[in-house]
Specification:
- By secondary structure, the protein is an alpha/beta fold.
- 40% of the residues lie in helices and 19% in strands.
- The two termini are 27 Å apart.
- The mean pLDDT is 91.
């Protein structure tokens, strides 16, 4: 029986724990594809892909931050044109549509840059008929993951398994309706922020993402 850590050493440790958990639960790499949300999800996803003997690729999604308070998500966009907006939050704060459009334009440019940098401008991965393991390093508001899940549904996988080391319980509950299985072993009631559940939570660099993709 695996012992759930109260805190992860780093993203690699979190990924190794999740990989062991998946194998213990009977998840296999049969017809599987592991999709990471960059950049932080890639070091978590790499050990999972290795354990399942499955290909590793990226699903490119960007959070849409509130102008002036960018850490708070008002929505997210993904490659392929899927956009999720938290209209209730936007209306409550009074963010004008022009400001939302400017954020979307900026983040869309970053999406395109990442697709060039990480994937040589290739189209989104073919997930048709696949069991997709969508992996991130943690789930706070869930806006980015929600956009990713909505994008995946448009791509018609056979099954979607959401995997993360830690997440806010309310967000996990809301996201569960968009996937077939949820594996988030650490769901603290006093969540606060993803980084608090890691001893080391440095920003993942492009060079690390590229190396992990090459090694997969």
């Amino acid at each position: 029986m695996l012992r759930q850590p109260n805190i992860y050493r780093d993203r690699k440790h979190a990924g190794e724990f999740l990989a062991s958990l998946l194998l213990q639960r009977g998840n296999t790499g049969s017809n599987a594809l592991v999709l990471a949300l960059p950049r932080g999800g890639v070091p978590v996803a790499a050990p999972i892909a290795k354990a399942l003997k499955a290909p590793l690729d990226l699903l490119l999604v960007r959070k849409l931050g509130i102008p002036g308070d960018e850490e708070v998500a008002m929505g997210a966009i993904s490659v392929g044109g899927v956009c999720f907006l938290n209209s209730g939050l936007i209306e409550a704060i009074g963010i004008p549509s022009s400001a939302v459009d400017r954020v979307k334009e900026s983040e869309n440019a970053e999406l395109k840059r990442r697709n060039v940098t990480y994937r040589d401008s290739r189209p989104p991965p073919d997930v048709s008929g696949k069991v997709v393991y969508l992996v991130d390093d943690g789930i706070a508001t869930g806006a980015t993951v929600q956009a990713a899940l909505l994008a995946l549904h448009e791509m018609h996988p056979d099954k979607i398994v959401l995997v993360a080391p830690v997440g806010a319980p309310d967000s996990i509950h809301d996201l569960a309706r968009l996937c077939d299985e949820v594996i988030v072993p650490l769901q603290p009631q006093r969540f606060s922020a993803v980084g608090l559940w890691y001893k080391t939570f440095n920003q993942t660099q492009d060079s690390e993402v590229l190396q992990l993709l090459r090694d997969s």
